[in-house]
Design goal:
Blueprint lengths: L11 H17 L4 H39 L1
């Protein structure tokens, strides 16, 4: 369970919800432009990390599969 006021961003769905919430908070004036810009920038970095991690996992699985095929 996370701490109050913090959002767990462990997948792209969580990130999508966070960005939607961020947009709505900015439109209502609950947060200032600088904070929303900073959070948006960091969300983009996190999204790229998640995408690269997923790709890395797929490559590792393919390499393991190919190694098993070669050793037979």
């Amino acid at each position: 369970m996370g701490r109050k006021g913090y959002t767990q961003l462990s997948n792209l769905s969580d990130l999508r919800k966070f960005v939607a919430k961020l947009i709505n908070e900015r439109k209502r004036g609950d947060i200032d432009s600088a904070m929303s810009r900073d959070c948006g920038y960091l969300a983009k970095i996190l999204m790229e990390i998640m995408q690269h991690s997923e790709l890395e996992e797929r490559i590792i699985k393919l390499e393991m599969f190919l190694e098993e095929k070669r050793s037979k």
